[in-house]
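Duplicate of #3305? Posting structure anyway:
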């Protein structure tokens, strides 16, 4: 009898990220086999990206998300959300689109829907409930996927939106649940199902009760979706100031967040708002600084960046 035993190095695959500043007017970078001198794997490779801001290395971010080994509802959503816009971005800069991308996103949609309970909520590893932020995050992904003409079953979508409406109908504790409430309101606003009166009430009288910069930005983006540009701009400004004043990492957050994720999310929400808020240049600097200081990143950080 012949037994084939796979043998591999004891070290798991490692990704090393190097940021090099190129000097103007002739700055150069040497890329050769020495970069892989310490690698033991035959399939080791080097990829090079050039951008004005090192934090926004989109190909590297997508590669990292694609290699993430787990597949709960949050991780699946985080991996698939940026893919909704990859081909559109590639077309804008003259690159070829990925013919396999549509199928990968569609598979992610069906996978997260397998985690949906009958009431419309989502569980991390199967049908469940009790995590309103996760419900809003997955429903945000489904909303964006439907906007991009992916197949999102109408019944599942309506149940997900009804779940958000029911949740915020009785949960108004913005002091402790502001992140969840703001995200639910944003997703409902994107689907034209939020109350603009509620949005204005929170922005005018309760804004200081929201402790998450991302949550404040979601209120701002929601107001922009309803055409309230003056309140939206002021609320985006408040989100930026809150992000600057809360730089410490809080390990007890219920919204999977970090200072880097919050900054990246504010930037993403601001960039797609109309008109674009004036804080975008300051946000780019904030995110670049947070990324440079981060020793590691999560799926949330990478997805929103």
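Output from current build:
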């Amino acid at each position: 009898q012949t037994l084939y035993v796979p043998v591999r190095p004891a070290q798991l695959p490692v990704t090393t990220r190097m940021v090099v500043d190129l000097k103007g007017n002739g700055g150069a970078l040497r890329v050769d086999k020495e970069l892989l001198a310490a690698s033991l794997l035959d399939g080791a490779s080097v990829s090079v990206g050039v951008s004005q801001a090192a934090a926004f290395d989109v190909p590297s971010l997508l590669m990292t998300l694609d290699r993430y080994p787990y597949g709960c509802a949050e991780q699946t959503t985080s991996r698939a959300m940026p893919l909704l816009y990859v081909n559109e971005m590639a077309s804008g800069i003259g690159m070829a689109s990925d013919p396999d991308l549509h199928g990968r996103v569609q598979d992610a949609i069906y996978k997260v829907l397998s985690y949906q309970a009958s009431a419309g909520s989502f569980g991390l590893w199967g049908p469940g409930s009790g995590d309103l932020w996760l419900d809003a995050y997955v429903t945000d992904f489904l909303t964006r996927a439907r906007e991009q003409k992916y197949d999102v079953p109408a019944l599942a979508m309506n149940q997900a939106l009804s779940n958000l409406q029911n949740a915020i109908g009785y949960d108004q504790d913005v002091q402790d649940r502001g992140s969840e409430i703001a995200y639910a309101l944003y997703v409902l606003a994107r689907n034209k199902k939020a109350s603009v009166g509620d949005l204005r009430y929170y922005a005018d009288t309760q804004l200081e009760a929201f402790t998450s910069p991302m949550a404040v930005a979601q209120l701002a983006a929601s107001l922009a979706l309803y055409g309230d540009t003056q309140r939206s701009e002021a609320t985006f400004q408040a989100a930026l100031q809150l992000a600057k004043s809360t730089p410490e990492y809080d390990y007890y957050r219920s919204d999977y967040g970090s200072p880097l994720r919050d900054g990246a999310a504010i930037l993403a929400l601001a960039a797609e708002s109309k008109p674009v808020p004036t804080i975008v240049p300051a946000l780019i600097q904030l995110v670049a600084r947070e990324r440079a200081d981060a020793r590691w990143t999560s799926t949330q950080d990478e997805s929103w960046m």
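Confirmed duplicate; merging threads. The mean pLDDT is 87. The chain is about 50% helix and 0% strand.
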